[in-house]
Design a protein that fits this description.
This protein has 180 residues and is of the alpha+beta class. The chain has helices at residues 2-16, 62-70, 134-150; strands at residues 38-45, 48-55, 113-117, 120-124, 159-163, 169-173. Helix 2 (62-70) crosses helix 3. The longest helix has 17 residues, at 134-150.
Length: 180
């Protein structure tokens, strides 16, 4: 009878003494994935918005998605008509900075500033940048909201106020944004 009582004790000792120390979660970089993160950027094709997947280094960040939008469509994107944009970009081919070297955190000329709280965001272009058409404002709203939702998938609707460089304010939500 004694040998049978020792079996559970020996099994317990074998499991607890395997030499692997107990640890918590060990952070080792980004998620294990073979594909880079994508965000939807909205361009215009045939007078309508079209969502285009773009690789991003900053998933969930509206500012990063707006930089992709302001860079314009890539050659070969879209259907037979190609893609266009009604959002003014920078006059340079350089990447759009999010701050000036002298004033960290302040948007540079042409770069929109985005503030988000919960399901609401404000997007402001610096004074003096070109104004936006209604379709251009929707491009901005849809692109920023799609990026924001990447890390907040439980949001039902994202509402936004877009103020262009001329001070024109456009309010809307992402309910009417194409999803594909």
């Amino acid at each position: 009878m004694k040998p049978l009582r020792r079996v559970p004790l020996l099994a317990l000792l074998a499991l607890t003494s395997c030499g692997i120390p107990a640890t918590g979660v060990v952070e080792a970089g980004g998620p294990a994935s073979g594909s880079p993160p994508l965000t939807r950027v909205y361009f215009v094709e045939g007078g309508s918005l079209v969502a285009v997947p773009r690789t991003t280094e900053e998933p969930g960040e509206p500012e990063a998605a707006l930089r992709l939008l302001m860079a314009g469509p890539l050659t070969g994107e879209g259907g037979t008509d190609g893609l266009a944009t009604e959002v003014p970009g920078l006059a340079t081919s350089a990447a759009l900075p999010t701050a000036t070297p002298d004033v960290p955190g302040e948007p540079s000329l042409g770069a929109p500033a985005v503030t988000a709280r919960g399901d609401t965001m404000t997007i402001r272009f610096p004074p003096g940048t070109d104004g936006l058409s209604d379709l251009g404002a929707r491009q901005v709203l849809c692109t920023a909201a799609a990026a924001y939702r990447l890390t907040r998938p439980s949001l039902q609707t994202v509402t936004a106020e877009v103020t262009d460089g001329a001070g024109r304010l456009v309010r809307g939500s992402d309910e009417s944004c194409p999803r594909s």
